[in-house]
Write a structure and sequence with these properties.
The structure is a single chain. It contains 16 helices and 16 strands. It is an alpha+beta fold and 450 residues long. The protein has two domains: 105 residues, Ubiquitin-like (UB roll) (Roll), CATH 3.10.20.70; 329 residues, Glutamine synthetase/guanido kinase, catalytic domain (Creatine Kinase, Chain A, domain 2, 2-Layer Sandwich), CATH 3.30.590. Strands 7, 8, 9, 10, 11, 12, 13, 14, 15 and 16 form a ten-stranded mixed β-sheet that branches. Strands 1, 2, 3, 4, 5 and 6 form a six-stranded mixed β-sheet that branches. A hairpin with a 2-residue loop joins β7 and β8. α11 packs across α14. It is globular. The model has no long low-confidence stretch (mean pLDDT 95). Bound molecules: glutamic acid (GLU) and magnesium ion. The site of magnesium ion has 3 residues, from loops.
Length: 450
Amino acid sequence: MLGENTKNIIDHLDEQGIELLEFIYVDYTGIPRGKTIFLSEIGNHLSSGTGITKAMPASTMRDEIVSIEGMNAVGEYRLVPDLRSLQILPYAPTVATMMCDYRDQDGCKMEFDPRVSLQAVVAEYKKLGFEIKMTYENEFTLYQKTDNSLEPYNPKICFAAEAMDNTYHFLPKLIKNLRKVGIDPVEYYPEAGAGQHELPIAPTDPLTAGDNEIRLKRVIKKFFADNELYATFAPKPNLKSASNGAHIHMSLWKDGTNVLYNRDDQLELSQIGYYFVGGLLQHIDALLALTCPTVNSYQRLQPGHWSSAYATFGKDNREVAIRIPSTFRGDRTNSMNIELKASDATANPYLALAGILSAGLEGLKNKKAPLTPVDVAPETLTEDMRREKKINRLPQSLGDALAALKKDSVMIKTFSKLGIETYIKVKQADIAYFENKTAEEIAAEHRDIY
Ligand code: GLU
Ligand code: MG
């Protein structure tokens, strides 16, 4: 039996001319995948979901299935859509798309599914009276195809007005497409790298921020593909040029007020904010395995590139993992936020956001002693000075970050033992695959996949 609400949704979609419904999930590769069901055949799939083989969560970005007990050719999970996430694709107006959660045959949510973990950690904050706002600030590189090679499109210098002029023939349409899937762009500009652009969007609740991150990349890639260009969000698609970050901004609110703000602090950061940052830094090595989760990610995280290379924090410091951005005059309380720069778009966003929030929550609970912010690029200090100030380098390889993740009990609790075990195996398969490839080959393969 269809619930009244579900029947109303189907009728409404039918009236709007929708013929196809996408059931999308995101696995540990960070790549959205899914199945499409015809609206005419939808039956009770909106509530019971669609079947997906149990092997899929153990898949790498090359569709290699790693060996995990229970995740193999036998048996099915269900992909059950979150109806609140429904949007119509701007470039395919007869197709509605929905984000799904993994469930078992009895309808129980699977705790290895990052989207499920994110909802659980947000509920923890809610119990403490916190509302969370988060968003991604994505950089991406545009290429044009010439014969058999890819050349950066519009490779002007950073923030160049001339490069802006070369975007206005497509920008309004792109922005419109993003708005059509519920995304609220706030800025757009040419960045430092050849063909590099940036498009920050407005903050939302964490689950929507995860959904938006997936859809933003999809809409942008499709838009440029339709315009004979090619967009990649890979962290380091071009070894000779600036890297693509997907910085994450976050703020905590209580009763409608941003509780990260304190007018009297040197960083304008409240005690709650310091505890949250303390939690992030306590878990930063493990977190990195979630927010910078590919071999290509570590080609990006080099000192001197504004991508962050050190496990510390500072006011508007672009060389450290956590930047405390300046607030805006006239809107200081609302604009206060914390930015994680050590993050890129190869991550599963639900995994990244849930990892961040559970680390932050630990900080809030344990009230970790506030650290001293760093107001220089750590690379300019001597090794002794860095040691004295306890400024550590971030893990320099995916393998090192995974080793930290494996030992992190907070992350294991957040994503389940099975989730962490599967994630680590999937990522180790990537490490093994890229082991004998050149830096250029690694960059090129990630450019093409992400
Ligand atoms: N492109 C830099 C990165 O890889 C960020 C530059 C900036 O916007 O500060 O994160
Ligand atoms: Mg930028």
